[in-house]
């Protein structure tokens, strides 16, 4: 188990590897804002964060997808500030866990880089929440260091060490570093806290990776 100082040092190193630390990242560093309706998401029926996990595939929270949208607006931080509506080919929600997948039709200018997926690391590992930075379109990706409060086989209980994760941040990926490679998504945020006092909940990918891979292969 790492002490607080060691965890903060690891988190800082992870931010440098990830290109985060609150600074803009190229192409939103694998994350994008999901919305529905007109330009800029005037219809806020869908207002979440998603992660690119494969060609045309976006991972988010299942409750972000109560009904399959005909199209989804992707907002990211490409050089020209992309915000584009894309037709949806498929929407899938896990039957028992709050996890969802969207497959879009065709290629998007918001595409990539693709984020890898992995089981949750041991307790005490450095974790960050990666979300699109502020602005319209967002100016990049911001990585918020997380403190792990508790875990069970299915979820992580987390609290940001700085900043706040709130409404509209559902679907935000939780990243962990790995030796010799880029950070990977190990969980997906499914609940936040308006005042950041309560723990935030993220669904672990440990037991869900086979489901995701099976769907991607279809």
Question: What can you see in these coordinates?
Answer:
With 218 residues, this protein is mainly β. Helix content is 11%, strand content 41%. Strands 1-2-3-6-5-4 form a six-stranded antiparallel β-barrel. A hairpin with a 6-residue loop joins β5 (83-93) and β6 (100-104). The longest helix is centred in the N-terminal third of the chain and has 15 residues, at 4-18. It is globular.
Largest sheet: 6 strands, antiparallel, barrel
Beta-strand level of the residues, as a percent range? Answer: 35-45%
User: SSE order, as H and E?
Assistant: HEEEEEEEEEEEEEH
In one word, what is the shape? globular
Q: Helices and strands in order, then pairings?
A:
Blueprint (H helix, E strand, L loop, with lengths): L3 H15 L12 E6 L6 E12 L2 E4 L10 E5 L7 E11 L6 E5 L11 E2 L9 E6 L8 E11 L3 E6 L12 E6 L2 E11 L8 E5 L4 H9 L1
Parallel strand pairs: 7-12
Antiparallel strand pairs: 1-2, 1-4, 2-3, 3-6, 4-5, 5-6, 8-9, 8-11, 9-10, 10-13, 11-12, 12-13
Primary descriptors:
218 residues; mainly beta; 13 strands; 11% helix
Entry summary:
The chain has 218 residues and is mainly beta.
